[in-house]
Each structure stands twice: as C-alpha cells, then as structure tokens.
Amino acid sequence: QVQLVESGGGLVQAGGSLRLSCAAAGSTVGIAVMGWYRQAPGKQRDFVATISPGGNANYVDSVKGRFTISRDNAKNTVYLQMNSLKPEDTAVYFCFARPSLITYWGQGTQVTVSS
Model confidence over 42-58: pLDDT tens digits? Predict the structure, then answer.
C-alpha cells in the first residue's frame, strides 16, 4: 500500500509560479515511479510528468521548459515546480506512485491560473 498526500495548489496569475508537493508513505515508495497527471473540468485525466527512482524525468510537450519534476527519496516526496503558468494549466493535479503493476493516486490539488 502507498498513501499519497498532495499540497501546494492555489490561485496564481498567468506567468506566475507554484510548487506542488506529494508526500508518500509505504514500504515500496523508494522503488516507485512517481509523477503527476492533471484533469481540467469536463476533460480526461492527462499525463504531465514522471520521474524514475533514479531521477530520469519525462514531460508532456506542453509543459517542457516550464515545469520541473524532482524527488527527494529520503523524504519520500516528489515535487512539481511550475513556472510561466498559463490559464490552460488550470486543473486538478494528481500525484501518482507506481511501485509495480498497481498505480496509487493522491486526492488531488487544485491549480487555477487567471489571465
């Protein structure tokens, strides 16, 4: 079992920055691929970024150069630094952890970018 708790969402103006955090608990967190998805109102949940236990990161094209994913394995925490935010980044952001074939999800944190 893995439990995930996100924090750091909020309201920001376009061009601003936010940092999301996802604290994980569970015996297999250290070997889990972790990352973020987001879901805008009325749309499906979409991939944003992922990071391997060794720190290899991947991003959806729309956030490359603006978002940075990182992890602190000692704290079992993954971060998403979001810069140059755009109104289209508005969504609920969900953290996930995938230690094996099972994917665990956090409860989500709202990010709203005003124009």
Answer: 999 999 999 999 999 99
3-state helix, strand, coil in the chain (%, to 5): 10, 55, 40
The mean pLDDT value of the chain amounts to 94
What is the rounded distance in angstroms from the CA atom of residue 10 to the CA atom of residue 112?
6
